[in-house]
Amino acid sequence: MDNDFFLDYDEIIKTIQTAEVITFRFVVVNQRLLIDNRSSEIDPPLVKLVPRATSVEERFRSLKQLRPRFRLPDKISAIWWPKFVDSLETRGVWDAIVQRIESAGFSEAAHQCAGVLQELRTLERQEVRNAITGEGYQALWEK
Question: pTM for the complete prediction?
């Protein structure tokens, strides 16, 4: 699946370094990676897997529920990631996410990123396995 889709990795990293709120959409994993770089004295930045939203309005509502002490952001940057989860690391994107969180001074939140990445990998492997075994999928034709 790590196909030849062109991705401007420098632009993606620049977005990670500057945007307040970002979501990553994946091909295999139904969950979205939500990164909210905003922080306060009591609220660290947030890196979390969240369900897919059916609309932009729903995403803003869910963000407000997750982060009630913050105002709604002006926008949420969305990044489509048509590659395997591991390529987030090999392309330097995951390091940029962790560095952005660390730069806010919340080392514990940065450490939690490793758990989120592991969860993403697990979900991806599980979905690929389901596709191979047919679990949750309907065959186009039967034997």
Answer: 0.89
**Would 59 be classed as within a structural domain?**
yes
Pick from 139, 116, 134, 140: which is nearest to 29 by CA?
Answer: 116
Q: What is the chain written as a DSSP string? A: --------HHHHHHHHHH-SEEEEEESS--SEEEEE----SS---EEEEEPPPSSHHHHHHHHHHH-TTSPPPS--EEEEE-S-THHHHHTTHHHHHHHHHHHTT-HHHHHHHHHHHHHHHHHHHHHHHHHHHTTT---SS--
Q: Which domain holds residue 85?
A: 11-133
Alpha-carbon distance 77 to 41, whole Å?
Answer: 24
Total number of domains in the chain: 1
Residue type, 30: N
41-66 pLDDT tens trace: 999 999 999 999 999 999 999 999 99
Q: In this structure, is residue 142 part of a structural domain? A: no
Residue 139 lies in a domain: no
pLDDT bin (cut points 50, 70, 90) of residue 136 is confident
